[in-house]
Design brief:
The structure is a homodimer. With about 130 residues, chain A is an alpha+beta fold. In chain A, helix 2 crosses helix 3. Helices cover about 50% and strands about 25% of the residues of chain A. At the A-B interface, helix 2 and strand 2 of A face helix 2 and strand 2 of B.
Chain lengths: ~130, ~130
Amino acid sequence: MDILSKLRIKESELKQAIVVRTDLEMGKGKTAAQCAHASISAYLKTERTDPESAEKWIEEGMKKVVLKVTGEKELFQYFQQAKDAGLPVEIIRDAGLTQIKSGSATCFAIGPADEKEIDNIVGKLKLL
Amino acid sequence: MDILSKLRIKESELKQAIVVRTDLEMGKGKTAAQCAHASISAYLKTERTDPESAEKWIEEGMKKVVLKVTGEKELFQYFQQAKDAGLPVEIIRDAGLTQIKSGSATCFAIGPADEKEIDNIVGKLKLL
């Protein structure tokens, strides 16, 4: 890694954003389990593609926000935008044993990545 | 690792349990963020102390359950039992910027670890 990249990582603050569908009306426990799943999945992807950021995020205290979208279409729209921006992103499909239809996409997580880059994509979404 | 230990890991199913306080009346997004925090923290601890189980859990699809307790006393009681049993466990204290008092213990996660060992501790708790 060159010095400019190192400086960029040092100066930026890292966070992870988790984006959840509200239309599935998942309960609190189900929502928490799906979000934890997304959080670890995106973290593991970041660890493979950008290990410095993954490590720094842990050291900084793993800042994360949980945001909401109203449905599947909106979920995939933001997911695709994050992907197109080159951010590490993982979408979660539920096994569907309880509450919701099998294979439904429930949520996705971006990062950890630079806070500003994440906000460029999902900064206007409201907290769940 | 000896052959018996390898067999044990191969035969057992692994899961992670996340235990959350209901008395704090955290919203859905707050609960999800705290649980994701606990989930990653306990995973990282397992990765250090029992990397074979951490890796196998990922491969198996990261089975997890989110359970509930009614207050701080009960939370610490189960946390201590899991710790005394030698399971990898991490408790989360909230920074308290929103919703609840700073430093409050909100939840903890155990594992990934052998499902039966986890159920021995928290198997009677109800799903959140």
